[in-house]
Amino acid sequence: MTDKIIKKKRSLRLKRKLRIRSQIFGNANIPRLSIFRSNRYFYAQAIDDVKGVTLASIDGKKMGLKNNKEDVKKIAIALADNLKKINVAEVVFDRNGYLYHGVVASFADSLRESGISL
């Protein structure tokens, strides 16, 4: 792809990210679950926006799992266990500008199956 196309894709994702982020907010009871996906790995963290602290996080790279649907399901199950340890049953899903399909949708569905409501 050319640089012009890459810049356009990044700017469109940034617009989506800011539009989504302006509408959602997390607190200690219902934290914001922010995700990041690179071409290789998948990351997620639960954030308390009132205090500005991360309550729980998961790193696909440290777990040795890639950014595909099967591995993201394992990541979601591990994050759900971490959230249950800190007594969090509900989160606000921040897809961080990524479209809700593929890996992102698989992650969200696995969280729901693990007992975390989005």
TrEMBL record:
One CC-aspect GO term: cytosolic large ribosomal subunit
UniProt GO molecular function: 5S rRNA binding; structural constituent of ribosome
Xref: Pfam families: Ribosomal_L18p
Keywords, in A-Z order: Ribonucleoprotein, Ribosomal protein, RNA-binding, rRNA-binding
Signal peptide region: none
Family annotation (CDD domains): Ribosomal_L18_L5e
Record's keyword annotation contains Ribonucleoprotein: yes
SUPFAM superfamilies attached to this UniProt entry: Translational machinery components
Gene Ontology biological-process annotations: translation
Source species, domain of life: Bacteria
Protein family: Belongs to the universal ribosomal protein uL18 family.
Function: This is one of the proteins that bind and probably mediate the attachment of the 5S RNA into the large ribosomal subunit, where it forms part of the central protuberance.
Assembly: Part of the 50S ribosomal subunit; part of the 5S rRNA/L5/L18/L25 subcomplex. Contacts the 5S and 23S rRNAs.
Protein name: Large ribosomal subunit protein uL18
Organism expressing this protein natively: Helicobacter apodemus
Recorded name of the encoding gene: rplR
